[in-house]
Amino acid sequence: MTSKPKKKKFIVEENETIDDCLDRMSKEGYFPVRRTEQPIFKEEKRDNVVEHVPCGRSITFEGKLM
């Protein structure tokens, strides 16, 4: 019999809303304790200079076992 980890990270997928991710967490038996967002950048070359342009964000929830 394997036990669940006490903490687990849940990433909001590309075609998923935040509410969908929170529902998925509760179905697995976890509740959110922390939310982190990180920007996603892409490189664009303009006039022989590479610029980092924001193109999205990654949202991650840390869940604790209920």
TrEMBL record:
Record's protein name: NETI motif-containing protein
Organism of provenance: Metabacillus endolithicus
Pfam families: NETI
Organism lineage string: Bacteria, Bacillati, Bacillota, Bacilli, Bacillales
